[in-house]
User: Fold these one by one.
Assistant:
Number 1:
Amino acid sequence: MTMQPDQADRASALKHVSKALSHDSAEKHVSGTATYIDDMVEPVGTLHVVPGWARQAVRGRIQSIDLNEVRAAPGVVAVLTATDIKGTNDCSSAFGDDPVLAKDEILFHGQVVFAVVAETREAARKAARKANIDVAEITAILTVEDAVDADTTVLPDYHFRRGSPETGMSASEQILTGSMRIGGQEHFYLEGQVAMALPQEDGGMLVHSSTQHPTEIQHTVAKVLGVPDAAVTAEVRRMGGGFGGKESQANQWAALASLAAQKTGRACKIRLDRDDDMIMTGKRHDFRVDWKVGHDGSGKLRAVDMEFLSRCGYSVDLSLGVNDRTLFHADSSYFYPDALIRSRRLRTDTCSNTAFRGFGGPQGMLAAERIIDAIAITLGRDPLEIRKLNFYDGDRNHTPFGMPVEEYEVMHDLIAQLEDSSQYWARREEVREFNATNAVLKKGLALTPVKFGISFTLKHLNQAGALVHLYTDGSVHLNHGGTEMGQGLYQKVAQVVAEEFGVSLDKVRITATNTSKVPNTGPTAASSGTDLNAMAAKIAAQEIKGRLISFLCEQHQCGPEAIFFGDNKVLIGDQSFALAEIAKQAHMARIQMSNAGFYATPGITWDRDTATGRPFYYFAFGGACAEVTIDTMTGEMTVDKVDILHDVGHSLNPAIDIGQIEGGFVQGMGWLTTEELVWDEKGRLRTHAPSTYKIPTASDIPEHFKVELYEGTGNPQATVYRSKAVGEPPVMLANSVFCAVNDAIASLVPGQVPQLDAPATPENIMRAVQDMRRRKLAT
Amino acid sequence: MRDTIRFLKGGEIIELENVGPTETVLDYLRLRRLETGTKEGCGEGDCGACTVALGRLIHGKLVYQPINSCIQLLGMIDGAELVTVEDLSQDMRLHPVQSAMVDLHGSQCGFCTPGFIMTLFTLYHAEGQSRSRKVVTEWIAGNLCRCTGYRPIVDAAMNSCFDVTDDAFSWRANETREQLQSLADSRDIFIGDSESFFSAPATLDGLAALYTQHPEATLVAGATDVGLWITKHLMELPKMIHLGRIEELRRVENSPSGLLIGATATYEETEAAMTEISADLGELWKRIGSKQVRASGTVGGNVANGSPIGDSPPALIALGATLELQSVEGSRALPLEDFFLEYGKQDRGQGEFVTGLFVPRPSPNQVFRCYKISKRFDQDISSVLGAFRFTVDNGTITEARIAYGGMAGTPQRAEATEAALAGALLDDPSTWGAGMQALLSDYTPLTDMRASAEYRMETARALLAKALMEISGTAAADIRVLARREAGHDHAA
């Protein structure tokens, strides 16, 4: 029978769920046999598509497009421009403002104007550089300040208000203000954007796309080709990394491959060069955050006023949800009695910023940690004390958007455990001593919390489907709407389905996500892949199993309690049958052994217009303690020690969950340290390759890097086996690193709040250090 | 003369007649052999996803080195064994490094994994490496992973790379050695015609003659830079002359007076000798590029391409290195700093090529320091690199040789600073001020994506101060965040 999640002997009773099993593709990964789209066998005559752009232009009207040399280049079969689009020239998720091919106007440096279709990729790449595109350039709006001055936004402002921040401020003993800049982040998925389109009969198109959102690929391709959704099938077996960068940003490339296939009647593949990929696709939003906070003199918050100014780029893309999530997480883990949390979604003439693991949340939380640090530093208190002083608790547990933090005790317990296991206070003393005896090197320490809301804040996305077949040999075909980008979703869902049928994992055949099997899906995003799809698959399997049980009860004249599925067998009373045998019997008896499972997250009631209701099913929690050393002569920095305790509810697969936590932390650490996006004064991205954009490498990871799963009572909500989502929350564990750097700089002048901007590159650290020295001289 | 290249793969000798001048190993694997296990991540040798192993006989020993196949020219692998991820797991049996990666959850999306596997394969076969995280991370710093955070990969390496060497490659090592020996010859390679060719002369004279005939040809040593001209700049380079077959250019000769390195000696081949000259130099060498880049990239190439941000020239200039050039006209030597005329322009005549460098060993009264500042410690290009050689007599600096990278259009000496520091006293920091001040007049750095002009200038001064603090012993404690991997700070006692 189905195991109940609350069983005390849960772990031992379960055969597959909660086991630290390898990723389903691990052996294929290590042997090079895992197939990514560029590895698929190409149909004979496959052509290659390369996007072309106005390499000098940033913003302006297109005067002329001369593609004669492009067309004449060796190997070129066709050149696509906006006029070749039979359907709608738009690949946006919703707002209709992302042209597949620019027609009249260049909106940012890197906008695609045409596409070359050639016999080889090399020929297409070389031809694409031969275009002459004349653009009448106008002054581009690039920075937050430019956009504020010009008052350009992609969406209306939005805010949360609770109580009266004005009154709260005036009732405060102390008021602090500040402003910080938080940089963006390039996804740097190792597999760049890629799609292959294969023309089908009757105008149909089969599109293999490295995408987190096959349904959107299907809809976009249909819209651009001018055919019904039903004529297009999108499929993806796996991505070589996504991180949000393939949620909406895969659309354009699938559309271009499909347009080329429609025009030529041949299979067409597009795989972006890394530089093109980094120049053309959107990134994590960068922000300026202006804040003002009032507290009671002991560090307890009274009123908070924060304004988040983000650069959204040239179009809306997913900026609505991203910036909303910033506001949803501007409290980090702290109770704001009176709060005004504002958001401006600025339009700049740069690539359109998009989803990135955390989806705006990390920026909101980092600003909150800065506020806490500022209070602690000015009071001469330890920042951890001020954090704990302001944690949500039994009395003060409503977020600025009204949702209660029901599991505040988990937060308290988790942080207390981490405080203990990381030996925070002993190390605080060591850091103090080190700093007292070292003039050049300074150490910093920080322990920061994570509280992350789980669910799409766009309510309709919180649904999922799965398709499960039981075959007459007892093997199971598993399909669902979630996509595999390395996070182990397929493996977790397979474990759940194997558990349900009582079969070994080798009986469960994992299959590629395909819009013709499960339609109308949401993106695999918002950390919700497992919550949604494992539940849908479980429901599908349960339905089939239920039919078998009814059939067997009738056959054997017994009650359902007498029937047990396990070890690839079905036990009926004291009789044992192979599942295959039961499946054959059921088939002969004309029992349907296929089911489409469907799941919609319950209890979500968010109404954006009134800013009321419950946006999240639950919160995931975590904590991290980081220690760093900085060089106050050069700004160089090392991360020396990291301890993490993270809440995944009852883990479906501890190995995969720990992998998500470690990987998320390091990705967040990169965002806040070495990863710096630099645009030049004209608005051209100058860091568009790994030679100039530096994600962490193995030697950046401290030897002391301890990650543990919080042992709790599981998710209070009825999620699949009481697990919690784990994809995004760990990114924000890295706030500890940034706060530790800030702590190290703060040690230079007691009472002064460092002006450290993110990322904490050597130069940004040095700037903050020198500012502190100037202030020291001034006092 | 040979009009083919020959190499070993999967135990078989492969001979190719058709090798384009700019064809890469990665394209050969994926497009011609349809072996797709090797991935392209960036196409510029910076992510390591395309890593393959090359086995070569070095002093009779079979050595496997990791190579970025995306920027390695196919013709360059002549005479080597090419090992790709497809060769590791035969008949469904995983190689020990592959098993460890599976068991310890070292892959998530899997796209970078074949590259890691191949780098770890070379570590598995490397001799004399002690089991430590430092060794592992030094080895894999050129393989980027965006999913795992590296911990499980490092663990997998720790568990699998340092025990016995017992895999299919070690079992057939004798046979491999024999096969590689059979491929070794001293013939010139020339594939193509006079308009478009890949060539690899076997002698200096052969090179001089060929280059005189085709002075517009591209000279390529490790291809860690030329590779990008092909994959990123999409340059048409119809005439390629590879220097790798000329034995005389590969020499590394250590003598009491100094180190003579041939133009095509790689970073890897010179690392031990550089470390012997100075711990700082050894540390710098370890931070140039990645294991893959250092296995291919040559010191001569780093110098000859004239980059303002090449890491080795400032250090070599501060040490007083001289450069040797040759052409059919004869040979000449000049101080290294004189080779760099201006941005993008070097003192190299038509048909002339770099043959080597001489690096004098610091005398007992000289101390050397160098520091590299970059956003990321490993596999990054410096924003500022400062190199200092001080001659000290009784606590007085009698001569300073100082060079910086990243501060001007070429690697350049800080002449005003050098002059201002002559006579400075190590135990009196007030005598250092003139030098610190003079730096402002030596350089006018630029702002770019790596650093601002202000940061560059202030850091350049900080590095000078740091060098003086270190050699004078005035710093009470360690003043580097990155403790030098090689122990032993030397003070100018």
Number 2:
Amino acid sequence: MTHGRLTPLGLAVRLAVLTAFLLFFMFPFYWIIATSLKTQVDAFAMPPKWLFDPTLGNYAKVLLDTEFLRQTVNSLIAASANALITLALALPAAFSMSRYGTGGKDLLFWFLSIRMIPPIVGAIPLFVLAAKFRLIDTYVILPVLYIILNMPFAVWMLKSFIDEIPREIDESAMLDGCGNLAVVRRMIVPLIKPGLVATAVFCFILAWNEFLLANIFTRRVAVTLPVGISKFITEKQILWGYITAAATLATLPPVVLLWLFQRNLLRGLTFGAMR
Amino acid sequence: MVETSGLATGAGGASAWERIRRRPYPFLLVAPAFLVLFLLTIYPFAYMVWISLHKWPILPTLPRIFVGVDTYAYIFGDGEFWNSVGVTSLYMALSVGLQLALGLTLALLLDARHRAFGWFRLPFMIPVFVSPVVVGLIWKFMLGYDLGIVNHLLRSIGFEGVNWLGDQTNALLSLVLVDVWQWTPFTFLILHAGLMSLPREPHEAAVIDGATAIQTFRYVTFPLLAPIFTVALLFRVLDAFKLFDIVYVLTRGGPGSATNVLAYNIWRKGFFENLLGYAAALSVIMIAVATVLALALIRIMSRQTPA
């Protein structure tokens, strides 16, 4: 343990360890992408083919012959609508908790405690209620349900960003006669824009990836991508060509967003434990 | 703004209601988020307790019969329930234990600052941000008995192929493997960042005093790292407790009921066997356990968070 400067050898050894580790964790992604580019015959060749003629056949089939595009649109609607609603609710709350200490630690940790509820537990009563209001398999239900999953993250993330803005800034605006909402809109929002975007992206990714609730609360109309992909496992066979291509496409948006906003996303995931 | 600082500290012992009346704005700003979340959680929870006291078929046309706490009594005598408690506990212990041990080992091994380490941050975060369904499917493909790449690699270095998903013990271990694969990079990132944020002086003092590497870790580094380690531990325990998606894709609770974890058991009872009352009672029990775990996490985090 050096905890400080490294010798060139020490650095080389450590980079080698990290790289080995990295290869282990990246190999499954490589393998799934490679398989998505193979023909049915190549995909199940034994021994496996490391070199093969890549083809986009699986992608063409997934895009044209399945509900993939429709489900992509459904996922986009559910995830974006949820990110917007969650942000609109969480931003004023985070501002109030940061500046006025509203509710103190109790409220802050009440929000966190919501994150601890196993989603399957909420699914039972919410399903009965949603059926009563005829909301099953509509475009409304998932954005609303995902508030439960995302609000704790959003409140904590936004609060930690607002905490970093000096109070003097909004105090001076208050002295100029701005109300609370005006301060949020004119001062806080522009100043925490990167944090706001990261929070929205975080909510979007979580909603985009969500499976359990989407699987229970949609049937045919509002089915999202994770559910759609899981349905390529049929009674008769598992359509691996479709699955690998669809999984690759469905994973692209989160990875691109992660690449663009990585620093601030890690903060969300750890509830501010890492900055 | 200047006169508001008293609010957080209790405004001289005024009642909560008095404080709200005197300065309503802060509460009005929190109210929408609070009310929406309250309506989506607390009310359904009360409703779920009500459901759990009935025989409640999923079809609204079938009759609902009040049975009181009979369902709970039945559950506690039900071998299937205790099996899923056992499976879930074993899964939690193995997967969280392994990913934290691995993450910590790697973090200690790489206990140094270097610009190059930053390059690994993004790829290490990817598994966490991939849909669990996709993760499950990737591994279902790779762990196939005849045609999976993992068994091929094992056979090519002289081992026998392993029946990853079709054998009772192996199926549970496969779930552990997948979770460790998905989350070890994350625990590594957290623990590494934690190590980097520790003060260096205690460590140097221990080295000067002639402490061995193991002693330094045991008596200096780990106690300092303990808070962030505990947070990572509890977050992972709570997530492992909820495990559903990967079971759904990879094993469907089987073979037999070898991977029938609590969340999957609830889903199967409620939405597959149409026993909503039974599933609701299971849920009440599950949430009681989750609450105990969550309170532990909150107490620890609360101590570290400035008000």
